[in-house]
Specification:
The structure holds 2 protein chains of 2 kinds. By secondary structure, chain A is an alpha+beta fold. Chain A has 8 helices and 23 strands. The longest helix of chain A has 25 residues. By secondary structure, chain B is mostly helical. Classes of the chains: A alpha+beta, B mainly alpha.
Amino acid sequence: MINEEQIERQLKASTGPVPRPETLEAILARVRNGEVSRSTHVDIPTTQVAASDAAANASGPRVFLAQAPQRGWRMRHTLAAAAILLVLLGWQFLSVQKPPVIGFAQSEGLLVTRDGAQHTLVSDEPLYANDSVLAKKRADIRLTDGSSVRLDQNTTLKIAAVEPDERVRLQVTVGRIFLRVAKATGRFRVQAGATHIEVLGTVFGVSVSKDSATTSVYEGQVRMEAPAGRLELGRGDSGLASGDSAPTRTDIDPAIALAWARDWTRFQNRPLGEVLNWIETNSAFRFTAAGEIRQQPVTIAIDQEPMIRVVETLMLSLNLRYSARDNDVTILGAN
Amino acid sequence: MLMSLLETDQELLTSFRAGEIGAFERLYERHARPVLTILTHILGDRDEAEDELQETFVSFAQSAPQLGLETNIRAYLVAAARNRALNRRRGRNRRHDFARRYEVVLQYRDIAAHEGVSSQAEADERLRRLNDGLNQLTENEREVVLLHTQAELTFKEIAELLKTPQGTVATRYRSALSRLRELLA
C-alpha cells in the first residue's frame, strides 16, 4: 500500500517531456536575429531547410530555420561584423528611446494610454514609465521589483517616471488599489491627489475619490504626507487625507476596507447565524447555538484559511464562550 | 557543466544581458522542461506546447534587459507560459477543445523513483499507474501538483500565480495526493 509521502517522492523524482532540440534552435535563431515574440509561427524565409531530420520533423513543431547562402568566409565575416554593429546600435537606440519597463500586466482588461494612443493590454504585456492605465474590470499588475498591484474596476493609475532614489512611483487618480510591496532598495511611493504615501515591504490599499484618499494598512508601515502634515500608519491602521489638509486616523478596519481585493468574504452587520452558516458550508465545522446568539450582529471579513483561526477570532471578538469537540462547536453564551 | 551548475539564475541573466548567448541557453536548459510540462498540461497538445515554449523564451529574451535581477526566473517563465497557454486555449474552437484530453506524461529521472521496487518492469508499471492517476485528477488538482513537483514552485509562489489563498493551494495539493493514493491503491 503506497502512502502520500511515497507518491510525492515519486512525483518529484519524475519529469515531464524533454523539449525537442529544434525548439531551442528556433529560439536561438530568433534571439540572435533580435526578433520579438509573437503568437504565430516563425516566418519562413525564401531559402529554407527543415530544422531536424525527417523523423523528428514528422512530429516536430512547425518551425523552420533559414539556411544561409554559401559565400566566401571573408564575406561571411564582414556580414557578421556588420550585423553585430547594427544590433549594438539598435540596442543602444532602443535603450535611449524607450522608457524603462516598470511592470507587466497580469490579467486582461487594462486600457493603457501611451504616447497619446490607447490600446488594451493582454497578459504579460509590459508597462512603461509614463503609461496611464484604466482598469475596465479588476486587474493585476506585477512590477519589476517583485511588487504586485491590484486595481479595482474603474481605477485610473499613472506609472510615473521615478526620481533617482525611487524605484516605483504610482499616481492614483480615482479608484482603489491594493499593493503587496516587495522588500527592495529604493523608495516606493504612491501619490493620491495631494497626498504622498511612502512604503517599504508592506501590504496596503489606497482608495481615492474626488475629495479624499484613504489608506488602509494590512501589514507593515506606511507614511502619508500632505502639504499640511504627515501621519505614520502601522498594521491595522487607516488614515484619511482630504485636499491639502493633514491626514488623520480613521476607525476604518483595513480587513474590511481591503476585502474587495483579497478574495475575502465580507459580512457587515449581519446576524451571527448567517456567518456560521457560511463557515459550515465552507468547512467541516458544525455549530450549535441558541437563537438569540445567532441573531447577534457581526462585522467581519473572512479569509478561508485556516478556518479554525477564523472561528477562534470570531468567538474572541464577540466575547463568546464555546466548547469544541473535533469539528463540533457549541456556543454557550457571552463571557 | 560545472560552471552552469554553480551559476545562479541571476548570474546567467546578467551574462545574457551582457550579450552571452550561452547564458541564455543554460537558462533554457534549466527551465524549459518544467515549463513544457505545464504547457502540455494546459494545452494537451505537444506541438502547440512546443510552439508556446518557443514564444515564452523569445519573449523572455526580449524582456531580459528590463527584468529586475531579483526576479524569480522559474516563476516568471511558468507564469508567462501559463498565460500564453490559457489565451491560446480560449481561442480554440470550443467543441474541438472539449474533445481533447489534457494529459501529461511523466517519466522517471531519479533513482529515488525506484524506491521499493525490485525490477525495471515493476518501476515501469508503477510509473504507468502514477500517470494514469495524475490524469484522473481534476485540472485544478493536477495543475497544483505539477506546479509544485515539476516546476518546483513553493505554495506561496503558486498562490500568487493562481491568485488563490496559499492555504487553499496547500489543501488542494494534499487533497490531490490523497486522491492519487486512493487511485493507486
